[in-house]
Amino acid sequence: MLTPIEKERIQGFDDDWTKWSDINGVVTEMLARMRRFCMGSALVVQVVTRMGQIINEIVEADP
């Protein structure tokens, strides 16, 4: 099983991106299983960035 940090790296996030949770002003450390869940539900940063670039190119090329 991948560690939360390995999953963050695969998804393009910084290490420990999901380590802390702020709920109603209370900061707590997230459980490893919840960190894995968050990364499983996340979009890959590089893919979203590239999609935005392509959409921008299409919009700019539209007369």
Number of helices: 3
User: Radius of gyration, Cα only, in angstroms?
Assistant: 16 Å
Number of strands: 2
Measured by DSSP, the beta-strand proportion falls in 5-15%
Distance between the termini: 50 Å
Mean pLDDT metric: 92
How helix-rich are the residues, as a percent range? 55-70%
Q: Oligomeric status of the shown chains? A: single chain
Describe the global form.
elongated
Structural class: alpha+beta
What is the succession of H and E elements? HEEHH
The biggest beta sheet is recorded as:
2 strands, antiparallel
Low-confidence stretches: none
Q: Could you say how many structural domains there are in total?
A: 1
If strands are numbered along the chain, what order do they take across the biggest sheet? Answer: 1-2
Describe the structure.
The protein is α+β, with helices and mostly antiparallel strands. The chain has one domain. The chain has 3 helices and 2 strands; from the N terminus they run H-E-E-H-H. Strands 1-2 form a two-stranded antiparallel ribbon. The longest helix is centred in the last third of the chain and has 17 residues, at 45-61. The N and C termini lie far apart (50 Å). The model has no long low-confidence stretch (mean pLDDT 92).
What layout of secondary structure does this protein have?
Elements: H1 4-11, E1 20-23, E2 26-29, H2 32-41, H3 45-61
Antiparallel strand pairs: 1-2
Helix pairs in contact: 1-2
What are the key terms here?
63 residues, alpha+beta, two-stranded antiparallel ribbon, 3 helices, elongated
